[in-house]
Design a protein that fits this description.
With about 375 residues, this protein is α+β, with helices and mostly antiparallel strands. The chain folds into two domains: about 170 residues, Aminotransferase class 4, branched-chain amino acid transferase, N-terminal domain (D-amino Acid Aminotransferase, Chain A, domain 1, 2-Layer Sandwich), CATH 3.30.470.10; about 140 residues, D-amino Acid Aminotransferase, Chain A, domain 2, CATH 3.20.10.10. It is built from nine helices and 17 strands. It has a seven-stranded antiparallel sheet with strand order 2-1-6-5-3-4-17. Strands 9-8-7-15-16 form a five-stranded mixed sheet. About 40% of the residues are buried. Bound molecules: pyridoxal-5'-phosphate (PLP).
C-alpha cells in the first residue's frame, strides 16, 4: 500500500445527528462497494468513480458553519492489527473524552463518550468483517513498526445548514475509517521554527478543531519548501518558548536525562500520545517535567528531540533551525531514549509488548455485524 493515508473511505460509516429533542440519533451506513479483491482489479477511471461513490455524503449539507467558517472539530485514532491476529484500538476512550471537550469548546452539544466508544468499535469491526483491514506482517517488527499499517479512524463534527456566521447547535457526528501506512518519510527530519502563531492565550489552540489547521498547514508547507520536515510553533507572546509541531507535540531529552515537554496551558493540544509517553517515561524511572522550555535552553541543554502524535508516532528531530541558527541533536541520529519510547509505544500498539497500562481496546467485541 502507498505511504500515508488512503483516500478511499471504508464502506461502513457512522452518522449521528443532534435532534431538536436534545438526543443523538445515530446509525451505521454501508456504502455500495466491491470486495477488496474486486477493487484491486479496477482500472484507473473506474477506480476513481468507485471511490467517489464511497466518499460522497449527499445527506450532509454543503453550505454550513463547518464548510464556511471552520466551525468543526475532529479526532484521529488508530486500530492496530495485532501479532495475535486480532485488531485493537489505542486508547479510544481518551479520544471520546477529548471530542466531547472540543465540541463543548466550540459551544456545540457534546457527543457523549459513551456513544463514541461503541460507535468507533463497531465501524472498525464492520469494515474488518468485510476485509477492509490490514493484516499483521512480522516484517514490520524489524524496524519497530515504522512501516506498519493500521486502520485510521476519523470522527468529526459537521454543522447544520447556515450561511451567516453562527455556532452549530444541531451538528452531525460522522465516523469514517481508512487505511494508513507509514507516516515515516525517508530523508530529512530537520525542523524549523515558524514565525506564524498557531495559538494564543484565550484562543482555541487546546481544541482539536478544523480552524487551527489553517496556520499549521501554511507553516508546514513553508518549512517543507525550505527543505525541512516539520514546522515548530513558539509561544505567541514572546516567541521564545516551544509549543508544538504542526500537528504533533514536542519532547526534549535533556543532557541530565530529564524528559521535558511544554506544559499545556490553553495553547497546546493535549495529545494522547504525549500523555502516554509521559506515563512510559515515569514507568522507565525517568524524571519528567511539563513546563516552559525556551529556545535558548533547548539549544544548549537538550540531547534528543522528538515529536509525538497518532500520525507521527514518535519521530525524532535531527536538528532545529531558529532565526538562521541550527542546532543538531545527537549527531543527527535517533537517540537512545527516543528509540526506547518508539519501540515501547509501537510494541504495545501492535501487541508484541505487554500492554501493562490497559491501553489497547479490542475492536471486535461488538454484537451483530
Ligand atoms: C491531534 C494533535 C496532536 C496529537 O495528539 P494525539 O492525541 O497524540 O494524536 C498534537 N498537536 C495537534 C495540534 C493536534 O491536532
Amino acid at each position: 500500500m502507498a505511504k500515508g493515508f488512503s483516500l478511499a473511505i471504508n464502506p461502513w460509516v457512522y452518522l449521528a445527528k443532534y435532534t431538536d429533542e436534545g438526543v443523538w440519533k445515530g446509525n451505521y451506513i454501508e456504502k455500495p462497494h466491491l470486495s477488496p479483491d474486486e477493487e484491486k482489479k479496477l482500472i484507473a477511471g473506474e477506480r476513481e468513480k468507485y471511490i467517489q461513490g464511497r466518499n460522497s455524503f449527499p445527506e450532509l449539507p454543503l453550505v454550513n458553519y463547518t464548510t464556511q467558517y471552520g466551525m468543526g472539530c475532529f479526532e484521529g485514532l488508530k486500530a492496530f492489527p495485532q501479532k495475535d491476529g486480532s485488531l485493537k484500538l489505542f486508547r479510544p476512550g481518551e479520544n471520546g473524552k477529548r471530542m466531547a471537550r472540543s465540541m463543548k469548546g466550540l459551544m456545540m452539544p457534546a457527543f457523549p463518550p459513551e456513544i463514541f466508544l461503541p460507535a468507533v468499535k463497531t465501524v472498525v469491526a464492520k469494515n474488518a468483517h468485510l476485509g477492509f483491514t490490514p493484516v499483521y506482517d512480522p516484517e514490520w517488527e524489524k524496524n519497530d513498526y515504522i512501516y506498519g499499517h493500521a486502520v485510521y479512524v476519523r470522527p468529526f463534527s459537521y454543522a447544520e445548514p447556515g450561511i451567516g456566521v453562527g455556532i452549530s447547535t444541531n451538528p452531525w457526528v460522522v465516523i469514517v475509517t481508512t487505511s494508513v501506512g507509514s507516516y515515516f518519510k525517508e530523508g530529512t527530519s530537520k525542523a524549523i521554527t515558524s514565525r506564524r502563531v498557531r495559538a494564543f492565550p484565550e484562543g482555541i489552540g487546546w481544541i482539536k478543531c478544523d480552524a487551527n489547521y489553517v496556520t499549521s498547514a501554511l507553516a508546514k508547507r513553508e518549512a517543507e519548501s525550505q527543505g525541512y520536515m516539520e514546522a515548530i510553533f513558539l509561544d505567541a507572546r514572546e516567541h521564545k518558548y516551544f509549543e508544538e509541531g504542526s500537528s504533533c507535540n514536542i519532547f526534549f531529552i535533556m543532557k541530565n536525562g530529564t524528559v521535558v515537554t511544554p506544559s499545556l496551558e490553553d495553547t497546546i493540544l493535549p495529545g494522547i500520545t504525549r500523555r502516554s509517553i509521559m506515563t512510559l517515561a515515569e514507568s522507565m524511572d525517568l524524571k519528567t517535567e511539563e513546563r516552559k522550555i525556551s529556545i535558548d535552553e533547548a539549544f544548549s541543554e537538550a540531547r534528543e528531540v522528538f515529536v509525538s502524535g497518532t500520525a507521527a508516532g514518535v519521530t525524532y528531530i535531527e536538528s532545529i533551525t531558529h532565526e538562521g541558527k541550527t542546532v543538531i541533536f545527537n549527531n543527527g541520529k535517533m537517540g537512545e531514549v527516543t528509540h526506547n519510547f518508539l519501540r515501547t509505544l509501537k510494541g504495545i500498539q501492535y501487541g508484541s509488548i505487554e500492554d501493562r497500562f490497559n491501553w489497547m481496546v479490542s475492536a471486535e467485541e461488538t454484537g451483530n455485524l
